[in-house]
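dude i think i finally got it to work??
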Amino acid sequence: MIGPLKQRSSWPSSVATGLIGWVGFAIIVPLALGYAGPLGPLFLMAVAAAVVQVLVLRLAFSALKMDQGVKTGAVWGGVTAALIVAGEWAVFPEVRAHPIIAMVTGVYVGIPVGAFLSYFHRDDRKVQEEAKAAGKPVDYGRDAHWLDPFVYGALAYEVAMLPRTADLAISAAVVGMIVGVVAAGVSHFILGKWGNSAATIPAAMAAGALIGAPTGLLFRAQAGSLLLPPLAVGAIAGALTFLATSIVGRKLAALERGE
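look at this
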């Protein structure tokens, strides 16, 4: 990542956090429930919700005491999300058609968005204070690449899906982003135990195929636009996602060791 996106508590990063959460689940939940309609309205509703929530939480950050704890951020994330969904109920017929699903999904997304805003603020302040005390420039290290897995996952799913429609392109990118985060977690917390050695890359791909296969079912309503059955495409996409993150994880681990 470049510029302010390296700092997880920057305004651009906060907006990105909101967009990933809201757009991700506003698309994935309907797909999981068999939704076969256009994704454009869902995408626009999610973007609007994300922008409004982040603006409110960031502008009232100190007043809401979100800088004092992750739990506080989570609470306000849930409260603001519920109010946003209630507001969208009056504007969007898609929300009125499924009010319970919309509210549960919105609060489920809003809580972690608020929590992450608080956590990123606290963690970045800690890094900045340590750098200041040591008289060194601020270096966010591996955390500066926090958005990378989302990009790798989105690109991997686009390659595997080869979308021929805008809806498939949107859903592929969204599902890929979420799988990318899972892959990054596996790379960091599991493969890291073996030093992210080259031998872990094939294992990561195998795990990615297993995890990715069921995600292919999210595209069952769009199966006619796929070159292979959904399960097969999902497995390929998952394997590619884990391949990318494991290779990058290996490089980052080597940098941390000073190699």
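Residues 53 and 80 are 6 Å apart (CA to CA).
im so relieved honestly
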